[in-house]
Amino acid sequence: MENLHNLIMGIGVALQPYNFLMAMIGLVLGVIVGVLPGLGGANGVAILIPLTVTMAPIPGVILLASIYWGALYGGSITSILFNIPGEPWSVATTFDGYPMAKSGKAGKALVLAFLSHGAGAVLGVVLLSFFAPIIAEFALRFGPAEIFSVMFLTFSAFVGLGGKDPLKTLVAIFLGFAMAAVGIDIVTGQLRLTFGSINLMGGFNFIVAVIGLFGLGEIFLTVEEGLKMEGIGARVRLKDIREGFKEIGQNKKALVMGSIIGCWMGLKPGGATPASFMAYGFAKQAAKNKEEFGHGASAGIIAPESAAHGAGTSATLPMITLGIPGSPTMAVIMGGLMIFGLTPGPMLFVEHPEFVWGLIGSCWVGNFIGLFIVLAFTPLFAAVLKVRFGILMPIIVYVCAIGAYAVNNRMIDLYYMIGFGVIGYLFKKLDYPIAPMVLALVLGDMAESAMRQALIIGGGSPIVFFHPPIALPIMILAILIFFWPTITSLRKKYAARTTIGPG
Amino acid sequence: MQKANIVVALLLFAVGSVVFYESVRLGYGWDPSGPQAGFFPFVLAVGTMVCTAIIAIKGIRGYKKGTEKRLIPEGGLKPILWVLVPSAGMILLTSLIGLHLAALCFLVFYMRVVGKIGWVTVVLVSVLIPMSLYFLFDKFFLIPLPQGVYGGKILFF
């Protein structure tokens, strides 16, 4: 009951004129960013963080979060109309969204996508509102060993369930931590990995890394395929909305499944991208009309879109309660929080309730209003892509440079940005996952100090991490998930052997 | 693709060994105040080296000549370089004349040479956009963007 009270207060905060204005601006920017290649959710937010430093924390974070909600919606527009995913999590939407648009039902495809986003958002925000305080209270009892174990679980999830080569995932994680370690060691004051360079003493800032990896890297990927932005024109008419509602009613299972998968993936950090693929896979398997998938099946849009948005919104939950971002973009937003001096985690609920509930309130407000904005203004947003790429591209690079420099006012960051761009491109091509690397970069210092403190408490023995009652089950779960691919392949081999069996 | 895979894995192995060297220098054991500064990097370095070594070895063993898929699709390298080199150039230029002027040059260059866009649009965009971003960021948001060595003298406002 008290939480409902808090929620209402939070929504009230979100509806204050200045905050509401920030949410609107964020949403519109977010949709535009979601539509453009090279400016994505993660790096669009990253570029704007230096701006928000001049603002108060609450409107600042509302602005950043609203960009994320807008980008979640916006990615669908290009996927459906141009067959170009504006965001990594809208790739699955191209499978059925574009074919549906090509067959003349672009409006319906868009409506299905947006409504599914809305549904995923609702589930995500509901989970957020009701579980956040519970988890936060639980997390108050966390000591350094528990904090480290939760982080270990996070990264194990990437290795075991991330869908990419576990070895490469591990390398990405180690590299991310190593980059986080560059600079002055907090505990001993020693310089690490600086090799006498003054520049390296400042370490790598995650915002610059994100802008380079996701921004420039994305641009290189877009350019190498020589993309032409020829799209299908579409307007969303009332008739489409009515049809869309009807279709969703007929595909309730896909919607619910997608939202649940999405929220699950957002909570157990993974993010919107893996969520959308997983939901698409599930929907296809569970469908009675499998052959329609890939040619414009409604469920093929509904499932991944509700999952992507569910993941995006529920990613907020572990971030504000445990300080573990549920998706790369949420990692950036968390970084922004830290810049404001607000440490995400259970203490945030205790010390700054108006901030936390204001953020949750703006999740409600922002996601709903976002739905209407995209339904009404899709043609305007799609028109952004009609601008010639030759004009758009250098402007995007220019804006990225501004963002990278504004973080710390260092020229070297601009060079780092380009370096990260090349790394991002290579990694994407060679299937090294970038998300865990960014997460490791953001969480590196926290993870290391948690580990050190825990080891000191435990007197140097790693047994301290397996202490009941909280750390032990988390570590066991983490190790299970870590070795999941090995377990599944062993099970398959065993099953094959027994079917060949006696004979 | 397979070659690039192996090469990158070896490069990352080298990075791991650099971190290893650092962690040994800093000390990776225990001292009275707890784990030394090199402890965490040591674990990272060993992990990186082991994993990249396995990746490289798997790549070398599984290397099939003739099934080599290209890393960069046909004709893809040129557009990438056309983005990378001018962007790098713009950054280098920034330390000389400041970000906005460098961006102006970059915009003109890319739009005209690569995008083959008409002069009118080129001039309009390359002057208006940096100017508006200058006023937005430097004056309104008060975020100082690099002026470079000569930039402040060229733009005297």
Characteristic terms for this protein:
heterodimer, A: 503 residues, mainly alpha, two-stranded antiparallel ribbon, B: mainly alpha, 2 domains, 6 helices, flat
Would you give an account of this structure?
- The complex is a heterodimer of chains A (503) and B (157).
- With 503 residues, chain A is mainly α.
- Chain A has one domain (2-225, 234-500).
- Helix content of chain A is 77%, strand content 1%.
- Chain A has helices at residues 2-15, 17-35, 41-52, 57-82, 91-139, 144-161, 166-181, 198-201, 206-224, 238-250, 252-267, 272-286, 298-314, 316-322, 328-339, 346-351, 353-384, 389-408, 411-429, 435-457, 471-482, 484-500; strands at residues 183-184, 191-192.
- A two-stranded antiparallel ribbon of chain A has the order 1-2.
- In chain A, helix 3 (41-52) crosses helix 18, helix 4 runs antiparallel to helix 15 (328-339) and helix 12 (272-286) runs antiparallel to helix 13.
- Chain A is globular and about 65 Å long.
- Chain A starts with a helix and ends with a helix.
- The mean pLDDT of chain A is 79.
- The model of chain B has no long low-confidence stretch (mean pLDDT 80).
- Chain B has 2 domains: 2-61; 77-154, no CATH class.
- By secondary structure, chain B is mainly α.
- In chain B, helix 1 runs antiparallel to helix 2, helix 3 crosses helix 6 and helix 4 (99-114) packs antiparallel against helix 5.
- Chain B is flat and about 60 Å long.
- Chain B has 6 helices and 2 strands.
- Chain B is 73% helix and 3% strand.
- The interface between A and B is large, with 58 and 69 residues.
Task: State the shape of chain A.
Answer: globular
Q: In percent, how much strand structure appears in the residues of chain A? A: under 5%
Stretches of chain A where pLDDT is under 50 for at least 5 consecutive residues are none
In DSSP terms (H or I, runs of 4 or more residues), the helix count of chain B works out at 6
Most extensive interface, chain pair and sizes: A-B, 58 and 69 residues
- Spatially, the strands of the biggest sheet of chain A line up as 1-2
Q: Give the number of DSSP strands of chain A.
A: 2
Q: CA-to-CA gap between the ends of chain A? A: 65 Å
Order of SSEs of chain A, N→C?
Answer: HHHHHHHEEHHHHHHHHHHHHHHH
Spans of chain B of at least 5 consecutive residues whose pLDDT stays below 50 are none
Morphology of chain B: flat
Please state the structural category of chain A. Answer: mainly alpha
